[in-house]
Structure formats: structure tokens, C-alpha cells
Design a protein that fits this description.
- It is a single chain.
- This protein has about 200 residues and is mostly beta strands.
- Helix content is about 10%, strand content about 40%.
- The N and C termini lie far apart (about 50 Å).
- The C terminus is likely disordered.
């Protein structure tokens, strides 16, 4: 009798897992607070995603922002017209970059490879990978909210808060005037590596 019960229980768990194994789809508008670890350079990131109007913002506050010579917090603003602006309000410096794609689509994890269920950060999570391991993504089994994602480069981002339908007022999405004077070629600005920050742009299906 116990063996029959165990068989039925395992069969039930298999059916439940099979029923929910589909890649998560992001809401079209949200605010996420992330803890970022990039080669032991720690940061708090406010991610504002608003697909309804085609824009995405990473407001990055590094542990080194108050160090001597730092330019302060970095605003990474991305638009669906394939343009991105990386600027430091305190230092009034700015870099513009163009990409072959716009911002991530809500279903950017479509066709990702499913790796199973893993217990991590105190949650049972579905695990996905895409682009030959370029990114691995964990979402909580019962809520489907993201828990963390890790890039193949090693940069880790942990989701501390996930607030659907929250965004910034339009005035805070405006690109400052100094971004349209002269764009520097640098991709490394006082601890903020722009190439790493922008890798997510290449996941748009």
C-alpha cells in the first residue's frame, strides 16, 4: 500500500510540473529592485520596464559611487527605436549607443531551454537558459515571479522587489541635454561596464 501511494504521489507531482512548464512572460509594465553582483562590484538596480511605450530604465547605484573620482549613479535608458543612453547626472557625462534590436519583448524567454526545478534563495524555482547559456533565469514555481538571473559573463541579478504596473513619470524618462552634445566612445566608466549592462538587449526574439 505505501508503494502504491508513493507511485500515485510521484505521478501527481509529474503532472503538476508538466502542466506549468512554460516560459514565463513578463508583465508589460513593472518596477523591479535588483541586487547586482558583477565581479564583486555590488550595486542596487531599479529596473523600470514599460513595453507599452517601448522604454526600459536601469538606475544603477554602485557601492563605489561615493569613491573619489566616481561619476555617481548610472542611468541606463533604452528605447524601442534601438537607442540607449548611459549617463551620470552628477558628473553630467553621457554615452549614446545603438543596438540591432529594441528593448526586450515580454515573451523574450520564448523557446528557452527548460532545466527543471531547483531550490534556490529560499524558493522552488523553474530554471531556464537561453542563447547557449548566455543567460540562466529562475522563476518561482507558484507565483512565476523572477527570483534571479545570471549572465554567462558571470553578472548576477537577484530580484528583491517585483511591482507590476509601477513606473516613473514621463519627466524622469527625458534624456538630458548634455547627451546630445558629444558622445564618448568609452565603454568603461568608473566601475560601470557598459558592454555588460547592455547584453540583455540581444535576447529579443
Amino acid at each position: 500500500m505505501p508503494s502504491v501511494f508513493l507511485f500515485l504521489l510521484l505521478g501527481f507531482n509529474f503532472r503538476v510540473e508538466a502542466a506549468v512548464v512554460s516560459p514565463p512572460v513578463w508583465p508589460e509594465k513593472f518596477h523591479a529592485i535588483l541586487y547586482q553582483n558583477r565581479s564583486d562590484d555590488l550595486a542596487i538596480v531599479d529596473l523600470y520596464y514599460d513595453y507599452t511605450v517601448g522604454r526600459n530604465l536601469n538606475l544603477i547605484r554602485s557601492m563605489h559611487d561615493d569613491d573619489a573620482g566616481s561619476q555617481g549613479e548610472l542611468w541606463d535608458v533604452e528605447f524601442n527605436n534601438k537607442s540607449s543612453f548611459y549617463y551620470h547626472p552628477r558628473a553630467k557625462t553621457c554615452t549614446k549607443m545603438e543596438f540591432p534590436v529594441g528593448i526586450l519583448k515580454p515573451n523574450w524567454l520564448e523557446n528557452a531551454t527548460y532545466l527543471g526545478i531547483e531550490y534556490t534563495q529560499g524558493y522552488h524555482c523553474h530554471v531556464w537558459t537561453k542563447a547557449d547559456g548566455f543567460i540562466t533565469y529562475w522563476d518561482e514555481v507558484s507565483t512565476r515571479k523572477p527570483v534571479k538571473w545570471i549572465f554567462g559573463s558571470g553578472m548576477e541579478e537577484y530580484v528583491m522587489k517585483w511591482i507590476v504596473n509601477e513606473t516613473l513619470p514621463d519627466s524622469q524618462w527625458e534624456i538630458p541635454n548634455y547627451c546630445f552634445k558629444k558622445w564618448g566612445p568609452e565603454r568603461e566608466e568608473n566601475g560601470h561596464n557598459l558592454s555588460n549592462l547592455s547584453t540583455q538587449r540581444f535576447f529579443t526574439p
